[in-house]
Design brief:
Elements lengths: L1 E3 L8 H12 L7 E3 L19 H9 L9 E3 L7 H4 E3 L12 E5 L13 E4 L1 H9 L15 E3 L3 E2 L6 E3 L4 E2 L5 E3 L6 H10 L1 H11 L7 E2 L2 H6 L7 H20 L29
Parallel strand pairs: 5-10
Antiparallel strand pairs: 1-2, 3-11, 4-6, 5-6, 7-9, 7-11, 8-12
Helix pairs in contact: 5-8
């Protein structure tokens, strides 16, 4: 099958005729792709990604998927009535003896590596009120309160995976990924997932235009392939991720509504002395 990619042309009629003429003359123009249609099946859901090389498509059969080997991705809670069950953290009691309101990871804006979990959800009595509310959908509750990674499920921006601390409930709009927490896998995979290569493999499965809103569903993350990491690579990636997380978090230490708040920002010093007036 021969495909012509003419997306950059306002009037593709003439460029198409030129490309067809070159193919008939035995040339291989850069915007022309010859693809075996059966190779589309190597990518999950067989997207019509004719512009991708055969080497990239083969990765989906050569490398292991993200889901497996003590790695998993899960969809979380849909309250069904956020006005009733969800608050910002500064609206809820700060006394941790009152164990009704817990941090709620519910997506948010684009912010890879770090984003403060600024919402809380009423999970009092192990979510009894939510469980009895007919509009709510509780998924994978056995994974709640575990540390991991989370991301906004639907966005026009790229995927922004960030650390999710322990004691959080995660949402359907803020899915979460979990790892063997006995090692540094979470930090290493945070670097790996935010890398352009991984995100390109995710985008390949979505087959969406650059300006289109994308849904980074749990199933897409589960099926995306990852390279094996040796001990040295894992340690290096963990270091990079922790450095990025720490740098982004440092800006929140002066934000009084953030969990990272430490002290108000200092008033900038003047670069020039104040003028004096003679009597």
């Amino acid at each position: 099958m021969i495909c012509f990619r003419l997306l950059d042309s306002d009037d593709p009629a003439e460029p198409l005729a030129q490309a067809v003429a070159k193919v008939c003359e035995g040339e291989n123009p850069p915007d022309v792709y010859s693809v075996n249609p059966t190779s589309f099946r190597k990518v999950p859901n067989a997207p019509f990604a004719y512009w991708v090389s055969e080497r990239i498509r083969n990765l989906f059969s050569e490398l292991p998927q993200f889901e497996g080997d003590e790695r998993t991705a899960k969809q979380g809670l849909a309250s069904g009535d956020d006005f009733r069950f969800v608050r910002t953290t500064w609206e809820t009691p700060s006394n941790y003896q009152i164990k009704s309101w817990f941090p709620f990871a519910k997506g948010g804006s684009y912010s890879p590596f770090y984003a403060d979990v600024y919402l809380s959800v009423n999970w009092g009595k192990d979510g009894t009120e939510l469980d009895t509310f007919t509009g709510s959908v509780i998924r994978n509750a056995d994974f709640y309160f575990r540390p991991g990674l989370t991301w906004p499920r639907r966005t026009t921006s790229g995927m922004s995976m960030r650390i999710m601390p322990q004691n959080c409930v995660f949402a359907d709009k803020g899915p979460a990924a979990f790892f063997d927490m006995g090692n540094s896998d979470a930090w290493a995979f945070l670097s790996l997932i935010q890398a352009q290569a991984f995100q390109a493999l995710v985008a390949l499965q979505l087959a969406a235009g650059d300006a289109a809103a994308r849904s980074y569903e749990v199933g897409v993350i589960q099926r995306t392939v990852i390279p094996p990491l040796d001990e040295k690579s894992s340690a290096n990636l963990s270091t990079f991720a922790h450095s990025a997380w720490s740098t982004k978090r440092s800006t929140d230490t002066a934000n009084q509504t953030s969990h990272a708040f430490y002290a108000p920002a200092l008033t900038p010093r003047r670069t020039k002395p104040l003028p004096t007036h003679s009597s």
